[in-house]
């Protein structure tokens, strides 16, 4: 009893600290401290006895408002105890607004505001909940046992705001409470359905077998958790488990026994990831207190991991299973990425840790988790596929950037900082990629400034130092500025270090840097200007502090080239560099989160080099040039001839990274209302152009049999595009593949399944008589969605006039326009001495090392 009272007080103080001063919660007058939930689970419903311990945070609270949807409450059992006395107002005890899911309980006397002496209050009631496959929040999921008999499992998915379908609760996503579960699996259930396992977020404390052979399982009280962080799973799944190498973490995967082998690879992969995380963290500290359970639930309702879950991860079965004959490389990559991301979330802070780390800005946590997921994936690939590590993470960097930039240009797209302390579960799904991928891209940019090793050493030290505390941007910024105050005038020209970083977090979108080279023999002058990038709006001035890195055609070893070392702000920035008649290319290795446009002369020099010897420019820089060329054409910055001249060399391109970037660039042509004034005729012209460019690479790799991940993905992407462009050999091949499948039941290579479905949906839409499995359905739904979007775009497109000029041939000789003349008088706009960016970073390291 003493122990309990103590823990109760402790909890209250925690609740006070976290919530009572949060503005948005002030109008809540009653707070839950503990939920005790006793479930009697039968075949398709459960009865529940619930006891909620609450405290009052106001005077004169005469009414308690609970959220409860779709629950059959036994109102006779409804009581509010003050110590041992029921204080419900008997003449008018309650009101249940079923429509809005609100339960109002009226009290005979006001609750006493919480203090050390105040009495304890408990809300007690019983209710019944009927379950079907369609019920929200908590539902049945059918699965087959080894004999093919259908059985049902009970599964939860409580975010956002679905806990009130599970039990009556105070449905505020920020409230945290202790949960105590007791699960009684009733006899008929065990006999008829042989469902015998239940899992929830805490460990089993003890169990008890009753006379009727039914079992009661008591679970230990949970730590303080939010409603969306809890879960329950009941089934007769079996499990496989594997411990991590150096800490006490164990990964357990649950599935029907006869299917367990399909999950062996996710188990091994997950444990490898955990080992990588431990190696990175370099401290002997488990990710979670107790095992991490992954449950493969065959339900399409479960799309993605629940971001707040840490030891009970339910996910759609087909997105966890490896079936060599059905899993496409994209599906495997997705599975690997998502699990890595979830494990990183857990590592960065979870309710089950001994000392809990909290992030005030959950968008920031999401971004860091995403970035680390790619970082660990790169290491994993290196271990398993013998590719060089640096290359790999850089390629993921490109991937993050492409994904982020896809959404990050609309006028309505918010700045990252405006998510402020929005909870991760409340970030709208259309901004998921923005929050995860943009933050990750910016971190990738930082990593490039300071070098991989230093960056990660610093990051891990910072996170380790904040264990059991808050991590917030403000804390981060403050420490940063404190460290750099003496450098302010000298290096940042009056601005602080945090301003440099926050310029990326606090401004929406991303910039395009305009490069103009005023050429004058050996005294060339380079002018840089930045604007917000947009496909449809007029350019507005932007004010990012941009780290600039560049390479030059005739001076490979220049001092400034090695590392990004200065930033530009709002003004035109100019510097001298002897280009010796060659090009300059910004955004080396494509690591900066911006696009670059050049003057026409420079673009043509770049195009010439690409055509003559594209390998002299490294792969990732090429990838950026190609993507920028598409984007700048679409945004009306460069004309079609110039864009095609730059892209003309693509028939010689063999790099998977560049092609990935080109394919994403080609997708940009479908941007609606873009300033390039796209028409049907123009679009056809582009398709024809791309068909010619992709043909050579298609012919080389479509029959190649390499099975490593990079080769499979490359093949899959190239085949998809070639077929979407109706490249005849590709079309024939798909037709053949499909006929083989339809007539002879030969399975379709999963990597080209998407392309195949696309063809079918574009032609007769007949998918044959074989029922689709979950892997195939996933692909089909995705293709259908993409085709819908494409059709919508095409429908709106005006027909347009044919261009007067003939279509360009592939073998162009590059002609250069006359040199721009340097006007020495007017060219000299404000010339700022290079701001040495490295200093910010040194400070950053100093901060993180503290
Ligand atoms: C609390 O305040 C918010 C905004 O003012 C309002 O939307 C919400 O309904 C209030 N909640 C309660 C319980 O009064
Ligand atoms: C009950 O407890 C025993 C011993 O701790 C354990 O072996 C058994 O698996 C438990 N049963 C259930 C249904 O959890
Ligand atoms: C539950 O039932 C399955 C078969 O239905 C059996 O394989 C498994 O061992 C059982 N688990 C427990 C804990 O009794
Ligand atoms: C974030 O929220 C806090 C408190 O809710 C507020 O003081 C601050 O101004 C907000 N910051 C931004 C960038 O919106
Ligand atoms: C950038 O590119 C250069 C040249 O290809 C390469 O040597 C270097 O490792 C790359 N840097 C990073 C961080 O990937
Ligand atoms: C698109 O059309 C507008 C209005 O007719 C015109 O001003 C603009 O120059 C066109 N853009 C391009 C890239 O042709
Ligand atoms: C510092 O910034 C101010 C305005 O922000 C500018 O006028 C001045 O030229 C800058 N000084 C240097 C040394 O860059």
From TrEMBL:
GO cellular component, as recorded: cytoplasm; extracellular space; membrane
GO biological process, alphabetically ordered: peptide catabolic process; proteolysis
Domain ERAP1-like C-terminal: 583-764
Region entry Disordered, spans: 798-821
Composition bias type Low complexity, residue spans: 806-816
Taxonomy, superkingdom: Eukaryota
Record domain Aminopeptidase N-like N-terminal: where: 33-190
First and last residue of the signal peptide: 1-17
Membrane-spanning segments: 831-848
Molecular function, one GO term: metalloaminopeptidase activity
Keyword annotations from UniProtKB, A to Z: Membrane, Signal, Transmembrane, Transmembrane helix
InterPro entries: Aminopeptidase_N-like_N, Aminopeptidase_N-like_N_sf, ERAP1-like_C_dom, Peptidase_M1_aminopeptidases, Peptidase_M1_dom, Peptidase_M4/M1_CTD_sf
Domain Peptidase M1 membrane alanine aminopeptidase: 268-481
Family per similarity comment: Belongs to the peptidase M1 family.
Name of this chain's protein: Glutamyl aminopeptidase-like
Organism from which the protein derives: Galleria mellonella (Greater wax moth)
Gene: LOC113515678
């Amino acid at each position: 009893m003493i122990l309990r009272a103590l823990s109760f007080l402790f909890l209250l103080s925690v609740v006070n600290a976290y919530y009572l001063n949060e503005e948005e919660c002030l109008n809540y007058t009653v707070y839950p401290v503990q939920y005790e939930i006793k479930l009697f689970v039968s075949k398709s419903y459960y009865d529940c006895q619930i006891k909620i311990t609450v405290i009052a945070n106001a005077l004169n609270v005469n009414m308690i408002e609970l959220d409860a949807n779709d629950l059959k409450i036994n109102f006779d059992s409804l009581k509010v105890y003050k110590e041992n006395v029921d204080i419900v107002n008997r003449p008018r005890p309650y009101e249940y607004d079923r429509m809005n899911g609100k339960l109002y309980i009226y009290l005979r006397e006001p609750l006493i505001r919480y203090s050390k002496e105040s009495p304890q209050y408990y809300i007690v009631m019983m209710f019944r909940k009927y379950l079907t496959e369609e019920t929200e929040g908590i539902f049945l999921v059918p699965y087959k046992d080894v004999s093919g008999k259908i059985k049902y499992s009970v599964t939860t998915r409580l975010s956002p705001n679905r806990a009130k379908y599970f039990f009556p609760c105070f449905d505020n996503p920020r409230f945290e409470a202790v949960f105590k579960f007791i699960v009684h699996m009733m006899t008929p259930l065990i006999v008829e359905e042989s469902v015998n396992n239940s899992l929830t977020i805490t460990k089993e404390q003890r169990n008890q077998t009753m006379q009727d052979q039914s079992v009661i399982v008591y679970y230990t009280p949970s730590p303080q958790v939010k409603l969306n962080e809890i879960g329950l799973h009941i089934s007769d799944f079996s499990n496989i488990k594997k411990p991590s190498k150096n800490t006490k973490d164990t990964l357990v995967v649950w599935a029907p026994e006869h299917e367990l082998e399909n999950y062996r690879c996710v188990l091994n992969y997950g444990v490898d990831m955990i080992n990588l995380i431990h190696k990175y963290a370099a401290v002997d500290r488990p990710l979670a207190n107790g095992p991490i359970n992954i449950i493969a639930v065959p339900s399409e309702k479960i799309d993605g991991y629940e971001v707040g879950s840490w030891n009970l991860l339910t996910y759609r079965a087909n997105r966890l299973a490896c079936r060599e004959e059905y899993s496409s490389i994209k599906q495997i990559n997705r599975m690997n990425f998502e699990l890595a991301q979830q494990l990183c979330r857990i590592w960065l802070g979870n309710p089950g840790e001994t000392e809990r780390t909290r992030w005030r800005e959950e968008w920031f946590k999401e971004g860091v988790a995403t970035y680390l997921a790619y970082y660990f994936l790169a290491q994993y690939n290196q271990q398993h596929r013998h590719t060089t590590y640096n290359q790999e993470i850089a390629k993921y960097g490109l991937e993050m950037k492409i994904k982020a930039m896809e959404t990050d240009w609309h006028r309505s797209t918010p700045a990252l900082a405006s998510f402020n302390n929005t909870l991760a579960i409340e970030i709208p799904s259309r901004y998921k990629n923005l929050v995860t991928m943009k933050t990750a891209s910016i971190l990738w940019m930082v990593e490039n400034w300071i070098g991989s090793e230093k960056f990660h050493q610093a990051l891990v030290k910072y996170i380790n130092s904040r264990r059991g505390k808050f991590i917030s941007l403000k804390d981060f910024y403050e420490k940063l500025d404190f460290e750099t105050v003496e450098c302010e005038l000298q290096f940042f020209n009056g601005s602080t270090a945090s301003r440099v970083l926050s310029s990326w977090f606090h401004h929406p979108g991303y910039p395009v840097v305009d490069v103009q080279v005023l050429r004058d023999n050996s005294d060339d002058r380079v002018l840089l200007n930045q604007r917000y990038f947009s496909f449809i709006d007029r350019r507005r001035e932007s004010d990012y502090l941009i780290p600039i890195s560049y390479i030059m055609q005739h001076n490979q070893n220049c001092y400034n080239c090695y590392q990004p070392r200065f930033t530009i702000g709002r003004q035109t920035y100019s510097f001298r560099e002897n280009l010796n008649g060659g090009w300059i290319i910004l955004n080396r290795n494509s690591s900066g989160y911006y696009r670059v446009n050049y003057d026409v002369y420079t673009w043509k020099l770049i195009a010439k080099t690409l055509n003559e010897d594209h390998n002299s420019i490294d792969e990732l820089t090429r990838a950026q040039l190609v993507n920028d060329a598409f984007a700048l054409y679409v945004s009306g910055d460069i004309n079609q001839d110039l864009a095609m001249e730059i892209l003309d060399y693509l028939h010689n391109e063999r790099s998977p990274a560049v092609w990935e970037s080109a394919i994403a660039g080609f997708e940009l042509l479908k941007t609606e209302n873009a300033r390039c004034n796209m028409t049907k005729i123009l679009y056809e012209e582009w398709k024809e152009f791309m068909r010619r460019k992709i043909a050579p690479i298609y012919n080389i790799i479509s029959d190649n049999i390499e099975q490593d991940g990079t080769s499979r993905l490359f093949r899959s992407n190239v085949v998809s595009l070639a077929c979407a462009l109706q490249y005849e050999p590709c079309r024939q091949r798909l037709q053949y593949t499909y006929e083989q499948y339809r007539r002879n039941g030969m399975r379709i290579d999963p990597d080209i399944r998407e392309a195949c479905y696309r063809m079918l949906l574009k032609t007769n839409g007949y998918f044959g008589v074989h029922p689709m499995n979950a892997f195939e359905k996933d692909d089909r739904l995705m293709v259908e969605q993409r085709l819908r979007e494409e059709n919508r775009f095409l429908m709106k497109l005006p027909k347009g006039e044919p261009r007067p000029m003939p279509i360009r041939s592939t073998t162009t000789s590059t002609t250069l326009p006359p040199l721009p003349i340097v006007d020495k008088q007017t060219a000299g706009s404000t010339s700022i001495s290079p701001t040495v960016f490295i200093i910010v970073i040194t400070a950053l390291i100093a901060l993180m090392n503290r």
